[in-house]
Amino acid sequence: MAAPGPERVSVLLPTYNERDNLPLVVWLLARTFSDSGIDFEIIIIDDGSPDGTQEVAQQLEKIYGSDKILFLFPSGTAYIHGMKYATGNFIVIMDADLSHHVRLVFLIKPIVYRKQKEGNFDIVSGTRYKGNGGVYGWDLKRKLISRGANFLTQVLLRPGASDLTGSFRLYRKEVLQKLMEKCVSKGYVFQMEMIVRARQLGFTIGEVPISFVDRVYGESKLGGNEIVSFLKGLLTLFATT
């Protein structure tokens, strides 16, 4: 395991059935960081994909080298497991399904990374609901679910952030470690709880508008069970924060 440099970014990339997306995402990230002169590593944590994602991840690790690409079998929550191996000063969490638009990957340094430097923020969160951010490729039902979930969180939790369920964020490593010690949620509620706990602990949060594009390959895991879990988690947070 490489020792962290003065500035190093670790990307935690949970995967499930991302055989077709993973090589492109990794290539985009590696090119972006290399062109920007940012030291980086990409940690792939696969949740038992049956489609061959694990084999692809192992090949990518061989191609790029284990100092840049690290493939893990998860033990418990993917992010918590990935954190044990991260050597970066900053941690980026994002999806591997290309829903975080290709342009967004290329904007990691000029927008997300620069935003952190400008405001010295503990967290920089991508937002679909502010400025020129938006969602593309979703049907009306999915848009209503997303908007409704975000509205409920704003009303009940008053978090001071415009997008609680988004999953493109940059954290200071030590901040992410402290938040994970406090958070108990899983799935979609996890992202929401991270922001709520961050506000409770007095961490600063910056936001940048992002374009979220529906996945090209594979299927979303969002379903009735996830929606029920989200509502239960939201009520739990409301009652305990």
Automatic annotation (TrEMBL):
Superkingdom of origin: Eukaryota
Domain Glycosyltransferase 2-like positions: 10-179
Metal-binding as UniProt keyword: yes
Any GO molecular function: metal ion binding
Subcellular location: Endoplasmic reticulum
Biological processes annotated in GO: dolichol-linked oligosaccharide biosynthetic process; GPI anchor biosynthetic process; protein O-linked glycosylation via mannose
UniProt keyword annotations, A-Z: Endoplasmic reticulum, Glycosyltransferase, Magnesium, Manganese, Metal-binding, Transferase
Pathway, per record: Protein modification; protein glycosylation
InterPro entries hit by this protein: DPM1-like (IPR039528), Glyco_trans_2-like (IPR001173), Nucleotide-diphossugar_trans (IPR029044)
Catalytic activity, EC: 2.4.1.83
Reaction it catalyzes: a di-trans,poly-cis-dolichyl phosphate + GDP-alpha-D-mannose = a di-trans,poly-cis-dolichyl beta-D-mannosyl phosphate + GDP
Main location: endoplasmic reticulum
Role noted for this protein: Transfers mannose from GDP-mannose to dolichol monophosphate to form dolichol phosphate mannose (Dol-P-Man) which is the mannosyl donor in pathways leading to N-glycosylation, glycosyl phosphatidylinositol membrane anchoring, and O-mannosylation of proteins; catalytic subunit of the dolichol-phosphate mannose (DPM) synthase complex.
Annotated family: Belongs to the glycosyltransferase 2 family.
Complexes and interactors: Component of the dolichol-phosphate mannose (DPM) synthase complex.
Name of the molecule in the record: Dolichol-phosphate mannosyltransferase subunit 1
Native species: Chaetorhynchus papuensis
Recorded name of the encoding gene: Dpm1
